[in-house]
Task: inverse folding
C-alpha cells in the first residue's frame, strides 16, 4: 500500500523520490506541473540530422512537426538542408505516416505540407 501511494504521488508531481527512501506525503508546490504536449516543432533540420532519427522521433511522437528552412544561397549549410537531404527526410516521413495509416487507420498519413 505504501508503495502504491508513493507511485501515485510521483505521478502527480513528477518529482524524484526522496533520497532516504521514504515516501513523499505532500506535493511540493514549487515543482512544475507535468505538461501535456499536443504539438511541437523542430526547425532547422539540415544535413547533420539523420533521417533515421527523424523517423524514430515521428514514430514515438506523431504530433511532432519538422521544419526545413529554404534559401537558395544557403542550401546544404547549417540549418538549411540540401535538396538530397530534403528528399531523404520526406521519404522517411512518408514511410512512417503510411505505416501509421496501415496499422492505425490514420487519414492523410502520406501528406507532407509545405509552408512559406
Result:
Amino acid at each position: 500500500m505504501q508503495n502504491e501511494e508513493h507511485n501515485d504521488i510521483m505521478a502527480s508531481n513528477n518529482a524524484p523520490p526522496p533520497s532516504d527512501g521514504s515516501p513523499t506525503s505532500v506535493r511540493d508546490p514549487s515543482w512544475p506541473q507535468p505538461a501535456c504536449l499536443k504539438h511541437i516543432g523542430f526547425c532547422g533540420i539540415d544535413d547533420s540530422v539523420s533521417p533515421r532519427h527523424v523517423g524514430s522521433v515521428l514514430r514515438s511522437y506523431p504530433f511532432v512537426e519538422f521544419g526545413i528552412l529554404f534559401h537558395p544561397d544557403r542550401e546544404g549549410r547549417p540549418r538549411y538542408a540540401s535538396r538530397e537531404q530534403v528528399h531523404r527526410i520526406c521519404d522517411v516521413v512518408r514511410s512512417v505516416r503510411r505505416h501509421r495509416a496501415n496499422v492505425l487507420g490514420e487519414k492523410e498519413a502520406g501528406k507532407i505540407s509545405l509552408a512559406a
In short: Residues 37 and 96 are 20 Å apart (CA to CA). The two ends are 56 Å apart (CA to CA). The beta strands are 40-43, 64-67.
